[in-house]
What we know:
The protein is mainly alpha-helical. The protein has four helices and two strands.
Amino acid sequence: MTSGEAEVATSGGTRRTRLIRGPGVLLVWLYGVMVVGAVSRSVYQIATEFDRAPLAYSLSAVAGVVYGFITYTLVRGGETARRAAQVCCAAELVGVLVVGTWTLVEPSAFPDATVWSDFGMGYLFIPVLLPVSALWWLRRARSEQPG
Protein backbone atom coordinates (compact mmCIF):
# COMPACT_ATOMS: atom_id res chain seq x y z
CA MET A 1 0.00 0.00 0.00
CA THR A 2 1.35 3.47 -0.84
CA SER A 3 1.65 6.22 1.73
CA GLY A 4 -1.46 8.04 0.45
CA GLU A 5 -3.62 4.92 0.37
CA ALA A 6 -5.96 3.89 3.15
CA GLU A 7 -8.12 0.83 3.67
CA VAL A 8 -11.54 0.58 5.20
CA ALA A 9 -12.90 -2.54 6.91
CA THR A 10 -16.29 -3.75 5.67
CA SER A 11 -18.97 -5.63 7.58
CA GLY A 12 -17.82 -8.89 5.98
CA GLY A 13 -14.32 -8.44 7.36
CA THR A 14 -12.77 -7.70 3.96
CA ARG A 15 -10.85 -4.53 3.35
CA ARG A 16 -11.50 -2.06 0.58
CA THR A 17 -9.17 0.64 -0.69
CA ARG A 18 -10.48 4.14 -0.10
CA LEU A 19 -10.86 6.38 -3.14
CA ILE A 20 -11.41 9.58 -1.17
CA ARG A 21 -7.92 10.62 -0.28
CA GLY A 22 -5.91 13.48 -1.69
CA PRO A 23 -7.66 14.83 -4.81
CA GLY A 24 -10.44 12.28 -4.29
CA VAL A 25 -11.77 14.37 -1.39
CA LEU A 26 -12.16 17.36 -3.71
CA LEU A 27 -13.88 15.19 -6.33
CA VAL A 28 -16.41 13.92 -3.77
CA TRP A 29 -17.07 17.47 -2.61
CA LEU A 30 -17.53 18.77 -6.17
CA TYR A 31 -19.74 15.85 -7.18
CA GLY A 32 -21.80 16.44 -4.03
CA VAL A 33 -22.31 20.08 -4.98
CA MET A 34 -23.30 19.05 -8.49
CA VAL A 35 -25.82 16.52 -7.10
CA VAL A 36 -27.50 19.23 -5.06
CA GLY A 37 -27.45 21.73 -7.95
CA ALA A 38 -28.66 19.39 -10.69
CA VAL A 39 -31.28 17.57 -8.62
CA SER A 40 -32.76 20.65 -6.97
CA ARG A 41 -32.85 22.54 -10.26
CA SER A 42 -34.46 19.68 -12.18
CA VAL A 43 -37.00 18.85 -9.46
CA TYR A 44 -38.15 22.47 -9.36
CA GLN A 45 -38.27 22.79 -13.15
CA ILE A 46 -40.03 19.46 -13.68
CA ALA A 47 -42.59 20.32 -10.99
CA THR A 48 -43.32 23.85 -12.19
CA GLU A 49 -42.64 24.12 -15.93
CA PHE A 50 -41.99 20.68 -17.42
CA ASP A 51 -44.03 21.42 -20.56
CA ARG A 52 -41.68 24.32 -21.41
CA ALA A 53 -38.54 22.19 -21.95
CA PRO A 54 -39.10 18.52 -21.08
CA LEU A 55 -35.89 17.28 -22.72
CA ALA A 56 -33.69 19.83 -20.97
CA TYR A 57 -35.24 19.25 -17.55
CA SER A 58 -35.14 15.47 -17.93
CA LEU A 59 -31.47 15.59 -18.92
CA SER A 60 -30.70 17.71 -15.86
CA ALA A 61 -32.42 15.09 -13.69
CA VAL A 62 -30.38 12.33 -15.34
CA ALA A 63 -27.21 14.33 -14.70
CA GLY A 64 -28.15 14.64 -11.03
CA VAL A 65 -28.66 10.88 -10.72
CA VAL A 66 -25.33 10.20 -12.44
CA TYR A 67 -23.57 12.66 -10.12
CA GLY A 68 -25.18 10.98 -7.12
CA PHE A 69 -24.07 7.51 -8.18
CA ILE A 70 -20.51 8.67 -8.83
CA THR A 71 -20.41 10.37 -5.41
CA TYR A 72 -21.62 7.15 -3.78
CA THR A 73 -19.05 4.97 -5.54
CA LEU A 74 -16.19 7.31 -4.65
CA VAL A 75 -17.21 7.27 -0.99
CA ARG A 76 -17.78 3.50 -0.99
CA GLY A 77 -14.31 2.70 -2.32
CA GLY A 78 -12.92 -0.62 -3.45
CA GLU A 79 -12.09 -1.96 -6.89
CA THR A 80 -15.69 -2.68 -7.92
CA ALA A 81 -16.78 0.83 -6.95
CA ARG A 82 -13.75 2.31 -8.75
CA ARG A 83 -14.66 0.49 -11.96
CA ALA A 84 -18.33 1.51 -11.65
CA ALA A 85 -17.26 5.12 -11.11
CA GLN A 86 -15.02 4.94 -14.19
CA VAL A 87 -17.88 3.69 -16.35
CA CYS A 88 -20.22 6.39 -15.03
CA CYS A 89 -17.62 9.14 -15.45
CA ALA A 90 -16.99 8.03 -19.04
CA ALA A 91 -20.76 8.01 -19.70
CA GLU A 92 -21.03 11.43 -18.05
CA LEU A 93 -18.27 12.81 -20.26
CA VAL A 94 -19.96 11.42 -23.38
CA GLY A 95 -23.24 12.98 -22.21
CA VAL A 96 -21.63 16.37 -21.64
CA LEU A 97 -19.94 16.29 -25.04
CA VAL A 98 -23.08 15.14 -26.90
CA VAL A 99 -25.47 17.53 -25.14
CA GLY A 100 -22.94 20.38 -25.25
CA THR A 101 -22.48 19.94 -28.98
CA TRP A 102 -26.22 19.47 -29.53
CA THR A 103 -27.02 22.73 -27.73
CA LEU A 104 -24.57 24.61 -29.94
CA VAL A 105 -25.61 22.98 -33.23
CA GLU A 106 -29.38 22.94 -32.64
CA PRO A 107 -30.20 25.46 -29.89
CA SER A 108 -33.92 25.33 -30.71
CA ALA A 109 -34.02 21.77 -29.32
CA PHE A 110 -33.34 23.24 -25.88
CA PRO A 111 -35.63 26.18 -25.07
CA ASP A 112 -34.01 26.17 -21.62
CA ALA A 113 -30.55 25.07 -20.53
CA THR A 114 -29.54 21.73 -19.03
CA VAL A 115 -26.67 21.16 -16.64
CA TRP A 116 -24.64 19.99 -19.64
CA SER A 117 -25.70 22.77 -22.08
CA ASP A 118 -22.80 24.52 -23.78
CA PHE A 119 -20.47 22.01 -22.09
CA GLY A 120 -21.58 23.18 -18.64
CA MET A 121 -20.97 26.89 -19.18
CA GLY A 122 -23.76 27.74 -16.71
CA TYR A 123 -21.86 25.74 -14.09
CA LEU A 124 -18.42 27.27 -14.85
CA PHE A 125 -17.58 24.32 -17.15
CA ILE A 126 -17.37 22.04 -14.11
CA PRO A 127 -19.57 19.42 -15.88
CA VAL A 128 -16.92 18.91 -18.58
CA LEU A 129 -13.87 19.23 -16.32
CA LEU A 130 -15.17 17.00 -13.51
CA PRO A 131 -15.40 13.67 -15.40
CA VAL A 132 -11.99 14.24 -16.99
CA SER A 133 -10.48 14.89 -13.56
CA ALA A 134 -12.32 11.95 -12.03
CA LEU A 135 -11.20 9.57 -14.79
CA TRP A 136 -7.61 10.68 -14.24
CA TRP A 137 -7.96 10.17 -10.48
CA LEU A 138 -9.62 6.77 -10.80
CA ARG A 139 -6.93 5.59 -13.21
CA ARG A 140 -4.27 6.78 -10.78
CA ALA A 141 -6.07 5.10 -7.86
CA ARG A 142 -5.98 1.80 -9.75
CA SER A 143 -2.24 2.03 -10.39
CA GLU A 144 -1.64 2.67 -6.66
CA GLN A 145 -3.51 -0.45 -5.50
CA PRO A 146 -1.38 -3.30 -4.17
CA GLY A 147 -0.84 -6.45 -6.16
